[in-house]
Amino acid sequence: MDIQSATWTEVRDAETNLAMVPIGSTEQHGPHAALGTDTLNAETVAETAADRLDDPVAVSPAVSVGVAEEHRQFSGTLWTSESTFRSYVRDIVESLAFHGFDRVVLVNGHGGNVAALREVAGTITRHDDAYAVPFTWFEAVGEDAPPMGHGGALETSLLQHANPDAVREDRLDDAAAEGTRRWGNWKGKVNLAFDSAEFTENGVVGDPREASADLGEDLLDAASEALVDLLETVAEHDTERPPRK
Amino acid sequence: MDIQSATWTEVRDAETNLAMVPIGSTEQHGPHAALGTDTLNAETVAETAADRLDDPVAVSPAVSVGVAEEHRQFSGTLWTSESTFRSYVRDIVESLAFHGFDRVVLVNGHGGNVAALREVAGTITRHDDAYAVPFTWFEAVGEDAPPMGHGGALETSLLQHANPDAVREDRLDDAAAEGTRRWGNWKGKVNLAFDSAEFTENGVVGDPREASADLGEDLLDAASEALVDLLETVAEHDTERPPRK
Amino acid sequence: MDIQSATWTEVRDAETNLAMVPIGSTEQHGPHAALGTDTLNAETVAETAADRLDDPVAVSPAVSVGVAEEHRQFSGTLWTSESTFRSYVRDIVESLAFHGFDRVVLVNGHGGNVAALREVAGTITRHDDAYAVPFTWFEAVGEDAPPMGHGGALETSLLQHANPDAVREDRLDDAAAEGTRRWGNWKGKVNLAFDSAEFTENGVVGDPREASADLGEDLLDAASEALVDLLETVAEHDTERPPRK
Amino acid sequence: MDIQSATWTEVRDAETNLAMVPIGSTEQHGPHAALGTDTLNAETVAETAADRLDDPVAVSPAVSVGVAEEHRQFSGTLWTSESTFRSYVRDIVESLAFHGFDRVVLVNGHGGNVAALREVAGTITRHDDAYAVPFTWFEAVGEDAPPMGHGGALETSLLQHANPDAVREDRLDDAAAEGTRRWGNWKGKVNLAFDSAEFTENGVVGDPREASADLGEDLLDAASEALVDLLETVAEHDTERPPRK
Amino acid sequence: MDIQSATWTEVRDAETNLAMVPIGSTEQHGPHAALGTDTLNAETVAETAADRLDDPVAVSPAVSVGVAEEHRQFSGTLWTSESTFRSYVRDIVESLAFHGFDRVVLVNGHGGNVAALREVAGTITRHDDAYAVPFTWFEAVGEDAPPMGHGGALETSLLQHANPDAVREDRLDDAAAEGTRRWGNWKGKVNLAFDSAEFTENGVVGDPREASADLGEDLLDAASEALVDLLETVAEHDTERPPRK
Amino acid sequence: MDIQSATWTEVRDAETNLAMVPIGSTEQHGPHAALGTDTLNAETVAETAADRLDDPVAVSPAVSVGVAEEHRQFSGTLWTSESTFRSYVRDIVESLAFHGFDRVVLVNGHGGNVAALREVAGTITRHDDAYAVPFTWFEAVGEDAPPMGHGGALETSLLQHANPDAVREDRLDDAAAEGTRRWGNWKGKVNLAFDSAEFTENGVVGDPREASADLGEDLLDAASEALVDLLETVAEHDTERPPRK
Question: Which PANTHER family has this protein been placed in (chains A, B, C, D, E, F) (predicted)?
Answer without folding.
Answer: 2-AMINO-5-FORMYLAMINO-6-RIBOSYLAMINOPYRIMIDIN-4(3H)-ONE 5'-MONOPHOSPHATE DEFORMYLASE (PTHR35005:SF1), 3-DEHYDRO-SCYLLO-INOSOSE HYDROLASE (PTHR35005)
